[in-house]
Specification:
Strand order of the largest sheet: 1-2
Structural class: mainly alpha
Number of helices: 7
Strand content: 5-15%
Number of domains: 2
C-alpha cells in the first residue's frame, strides 16, 4: 500500500506509505499540491479497505434483493397459485398482501448492492432504511391488529434489534467510519 512520487527538484523517487504526503525525504522540497493531493487520495482509499461485513452485506443484498424482486415478478406474471404463510393465494392477492413490502425491500437491497459495488457513500444511510422497512410494516400491522403471523412478528422483532446494531456498526466502528470517510470529499479517514 504505497505511492511513488518523483521530486520536482532532485528527481529522486520516494515510496510513500503513510499520510501526510508533504516533501521529498532526500532534499526537503515540497511536492506540488496537485501531486500531493493525488497521492494522499490514493493512500486514503488504499488504507481504508472495504470492511468484511460490508463485502458480505453487498453479496447478500444482491442475492436477497434478486430473490425478492423475482418473487414479485413471478406473482405479477400470474404463474398460478402461491402460498403466503401457509395459505393458498392468487398472484394478485400475493401482490396486494406481500408485494409492497417484498418489492420495497428488494429494491432497497438492489440499490445497496449496486452502491456498495461502486463504493458509494450513500449506502450507509440506505442500509438503515432497509432495516426500518420491516419495522414500519410491523408497527403498521401492530396498530391495525394484523400483526399475527409468526414470520411478521419475527421480522419486526429482528429488525428492532438489528437496526440499532447496524447503526452502531456503520457509524461508530472505526474501520467502517474510515472506509466511508475516505470516500467523502473533505473528510480524513479515522483509524
Amino acid at each position: 500500500m504505497s505511492v511513488v512520487l518523483v521530486c520536482p527538484k532532485c528527481g529522486d523517487t520516494a515510496t510513500v506509505e503513510r499520510l501526510p504526503v508533504e516533501a521529498c525525504p532526500r532534499c526537503g522540497t515540497p511536492y506540488p499540491t496537485q501531486a500531493r493531493l493525488a497521492a494522499e487520495s490514493a493512500l486514503k482509499l488504499r488504507l481504508a479497505a472495504k470492511p468484511g461485513l460490508i463485502v458480505l452485506g453487498q453479496m447478500l443484498s444482491a442475492m436477497f434483493g434478486g430473490i425478492l424482486l423475482g418473487l414479485v415478478a413471478l406473482a405479477a406474471a400470474g404463474t398460478g397459485d402461491l402460498t403466503l404463510f401457509g395459505e393458498q393465494v392468487t398472484g394478485r392477492e400475493f401482490l396486494v398482501r406481500a408485494g409492497p413490502l417484498l418489492g420495497g425491500v428488494g429494491l432497497v437491497l438492489g440499490a445497496i448492492a449496486y452502491g456498495l459495488s461502486r463504493d458509494a457513500r450513500w449506502t450507509r444511510p440506505l442500509m438503515l432504511v432497509m432495516w426500518s422497512l420491516p419495522i414500519v410494516e410491523g408497527a403498521t400491522r401492530l396498530a391495525t391488529g394484523t400483526l399475527e403471523h409468526p414470520w411478521n412478528i419475527a421480522a419486526f422483532i429482528v429488525s428492532l434489534a438489528a437496526m440499532p446494531l447496524a447503526a452502531v456498526y456503520l457509524y461508530r466502528r472505526d474501520n467502517v467510519v474510515s472506509y466511508y470517510d475516505a470516500r467523502t470529499p473533505g473528510r480524513e479517514p479515522t483509524g
